[in-house]
Each structure stands twice: as C-alpha cells, then as structure tokens.
Amino acid sequence: MSKVKRVLAAAMLSAAVIGLAPAVSSAADEQRIVDVAGNALLMEDGSLWIDNLMGPVRHKLDLTEIAGMDGYGYGLTKNGELVTWASIGKPEIDPDLTGIKQLNARGFALKSDGTVWSGAGKIDGMTGVVRISEDNGLAALTEDGRLLGVGAKNLKATVPNPQNVSMIASAGDRAAVLDNDGEITLYEGFNFGADTFELIPTKLAAPAAAHVAYAANDILIVTLKDGTVWTNGAYQERYKLTKQIEGIGQAEMTVPYGDEEQFSFYAKRTDGTWVRYENGEIGELKSPYVASIEVNVSQSAVLVGDAVKIDIAEKYSNGALKKIPLSEANVAIDKPYLLKIQPDGTLKALGVGEAKVTVTSGSASKTVSVSIGGKSALQFSVVKDGIVYLPVQSTFKALGGTSAYAATSKTFSIRVGDTPVTLTLGSTTAAVNGKKIKLKAAPRTENGMAVFPAHLLADAFGAKTAWDSKLKQATVSFGQASLTVVSAETAGIVKKAAQGSLSRFIGRTYWVNYFQQWDRFMKVTVADIVPDDTGYFSIVFKSASGKSYTSYAMPASNVEDLFADSYYFLNYDPYKKYNWSQAVWTQIKSGQISAGMTKEQVLLSWGTPVTKSTVTGSGTTVETWGYPSFNFVSFVNGKVTLIVN
Fold first, then answer.
1. Could you give the CA distance from residue 140 to residue 165 in angstroms, rounded to a whole number?
2. Chain centroid to CA 494: how far?
3. Running DSSP on this structure, what letter comes out for residue 204?
4. How confident is the model at residue 30 (pLDDT cuts 50, 70, 90)?
5. Considering the entire predicted model, what is its pTM?
6. What is the DSSP letter of 62?
7. Bridge partners, 175 (sequence order)
8. Residue 599, phi then psi, degrees to nearest 5
C-alpha cells in the first residue's frame, strides 16, 4: 500500500467531491478508504474513485496501492500491472511496465529486478534498488545501502543496515529515512563533507515514529507510534519535532496535499477512518456511499408477453451517478410469477396483476410497480342465478399460475405464486393455502368447460371482480391491472355496437360495378359488416351462388360512400333495366365502347365523364364527353359517332 503522496490542489478533493460534508450512513453502505492519491480514492475492494473533469467516477479495479497527484495517478494491481489515469478518460493498464514492486507519486516505479522506471523509460544509474521514496520526490535505497537521488549527482550517501529501513520520504534535495525501530535519519543535499562529498546523516530528535511525509512546503510530518502527529521546526530546528497537530490521535499515516501556500494533509487512523487537516481545521473524510437509487421502467402499465426495460442508477453521497446493469443489481420481485428477469436485461410480463420491483444497495432501496393487463380477452364467462363464473384453467393461467386436473376426483390443483388452491367440481368447499373456504356455488361444467365462482379470486388473492351487464362480460382487476373474460354473447354485442347505423346495410342486395376487380354486374348481398380493433370495417358479401367476398378494411364513412356511389355498386339489376344484346354487354363489362352505342351504354362502360360539351344546329345535336388521359367520345343525336382513345 502506498503510504505517502503529495497532492497539489486541495480543491479537487473538496467536500462536494469525496463526501467530506456530514452524512448519515451505515457501515454496511461504505467501502473503507485504503489510500488517497491526488484526486483519487482507493477503496478496500480495490475499486478506485477518481474526480475527473466530468465529476467523480467509480472504477471497478483490483488495485493494491495507488500514487499520484491531481490530474494524474498510478495504481498497482495484484498481478503487478501498472494502471494509469489522467483527468479525463478511464484508467488503463500500461503494457510496457510489469513486475512492479513499488510506486511513487511522481510516476516512478520500482520493479522487482531492482531497476527504477518512469514513463520516459529506465532511470540511469539506479540498479539494485530495494526501496524508493513514495511521495513526489525521488530517493532510492540500494541493497548495499547507497541512497541515490538526494542532492547533486557527485554527492554520496550511505544508509547503514538498509534492510532495517521501513520507508523513505523525499522532497527536493532532502530525504527522511525511517527504520523499523522508529528512528528517523535526515539526509540533505546541502549538508555534506567537503572532503568526502558524503551526505552527513542527522538523527531527528523524536520518539519512535510510525510514518514520515513531506508536505508541499517541505515541512516534515511525522506520525509517532503513539498516534500523534508532529512537524519539525524551521531551518535551525529542523532536526527536532517542535509542534504537535492538536486534535488528531490514533493516526498511523498521513497524506499531504495542497500547495506551498497551505499546510494540509489527510491522516489515516488505526481504525481505518480518515480525517482532513487544513489550515488548522479538522474534519472527517467520508467514504462515498450509495445515498439513493434511481429506478425507471420503460412502461409502468404493460400487457402479458410484453418486455419491460429497466434502468437502474446508484446516486452516491459525493454526487456521482452510476448506471447499474440489471444483471449486477440486487433486485427482488415480490411476485416473480408475474415478472421475470430475462438474459437480455429486460423484465418479461408473465401474468395479469401488479408486481413490485425493489432494487437495494446497502441501506438504500427503491421500489417501482408494474401493472400487467391481459393482452386478449378470455372465453367464456357465465352468469347463473346471479353468480358470475369464470373458466378454471385459462383464468389461472392468465394470472401466472398453473393448474392440473385429476379426472378421478374431479379436482383441480392450482398454484398462483406461493398460494395453492384446490377446487372440486360439484363441491362448494375449496381450499386456499390449506385453509377451507365456502363457495357461493360449486364449480361446474358449462358447454364442456369447467368454471368456478369469480368471488374466489377476491377471497384468495384480493382481486376485484365485476360483471358488465351491457356487454355481458366479466372483469378481474388487481389495482390498475385487469383481465376481461367475455361470454358467448359479448362478441355479438360488441360487434353490433361498433356497427352502429352501418347495420342497416346488412341484407341489402347490390350489383358490382367497379370494385376490387370483381366480376362486373355480379349480384351480391351484404352478409356482414365486421369491425376490427382499429375502428375499421370489412364488408362481407355473398354472391347468388353462395360464394363469399370480403372487401378491404375501411372507415365507417367510406362504407356509407361506397354504397352511395354507382361507380362502385349499382342498386338495381342492370340486365333487367336494360334489354341490350349480349354483344353490347360483353363490350360494357370489358370497358369498351363502339359506334352506335347510347349514352347509357357508354356510362356503364366508361363511367361518368369529366367534361361535357354540347353543340346544336340544323336539327342536329353533337355532345362530346371527356375522360382522363385525353379520351373523348362524341354523340350525334344520342349515338356514338366518334371515339378518341
């Protein structure tokens, strides 16, 4: 675990970002903070909170330590892989740096082979290294006790008993070496022997220490083994501790942040909690936790068989909003026989009723309700002696249940969710959850179908049942969800109501003129006018031979217009009205005309003209009819004499 980081800007780790403001949360909600690096928090599960330009974002990783500053950082996975991140984008594994042993806040990394690397490559002259400083300076301790990176390159420093060193802090040309006994030795680039160029080690006068760190203004922060936090003095008193940071106890390490203008740091306590010290003020550093959950469904009212999309997002105490796939969420459905989670991340509606979907994260939870109605009506409900009966098997199947029939005992074994129901044909005693209840009437068989008294659904499942005497159908409802069960009479009633005044055409006889390329002048009778579920109607005709013909679907107004327009249908028998030869009828049916035809014959063959003009003189009348596509026919005294086609 990285112990020391320097953070250049405290604002990026403000209360709004990482949850420093007082908040009430349960321990179960919070992941403990393991370490802080710049604008990032390492949590105990290896995940990482980064406050980038878009706000705080949590990344699921498997990190053991982090280091860095505001705007960039580094993490080490359990496999020794280096993870890097910047102020934007996601953390990424650096494939060029592997086998890492220790990280440094400035991006230096100690590899297991004793070499030190940065993003620019291997650091020259640093080999055989066993430990590097962990803050934003760079000091390296070799296996043979050489301390590298402090002061000018020609200066030397030797650390006796290097295997006893527990950590190194570094800032500029100075380093503080802490050993396992709690002693701190200071090495300064300006304090060396003039003849030997050897840095002069100086012991810091202090009780046993547990941790050392340099603040941005090069003040040394020392955490003692008794849990108190101290700083050393100014130049003349830099070799001794002169000031205790009041109000901080039980500390085990510190993480400085801020710039040279402010003295501030985070302190980790032995119980795993963190505090913040900034310009004399102390406050708690809270772990981000799920403060609330947002759950939205694509539709709150659906039909059986529909798919419901569900969006889940966790809203954290630091303002972050994280979308959670359904497969990763803690979801509970109170009636799983009505709604079922699908592999594609949707919920499928299985039965009629109301189901509650509850999503939980820590102590936060959100519940949404989905009402599921029947996609189509069931058949057939019956009323006998004032009691409404419903079909056994189809009704309970529609409610998401199952049923099995034992012919020998005439008993139905039914289960809806966790509720078992037993019904027996001819018996007024039923069982619900093993408890016997009295029915108003016994289940019976009607038209070959087993039916039961509808009130059972109210007694067993809290449903409301109602009978519509006008439409002669039953409705079973659970809140906003409902199921319709029609009777044998319902279809006729609904159809007649939909037909309205159109029913007057049923039974009328017409002769086809131009309609759907049917045989012209064929005699047909309107057998039915059938409504569909879109409000349109199809007309069913019967020919004299008994063959059925069905029109295309059309609005009610079009039905009215169709029978009023002789272009489509004639309301008389043209063969009886006009005693013409077979040759003339053959031409008319094929839409042809010829010289000598009368106006009536042309009208039946070509239809009503677009234009008409008449010229009279010397006892002769010339009439010309115009048709689309520049077709003309002229009559002289009522007979065709000229055809332009």
1. 12
2. 40
3. -
4. low
5. 0.69
6. -
7. 170, 187
8. -60, -40
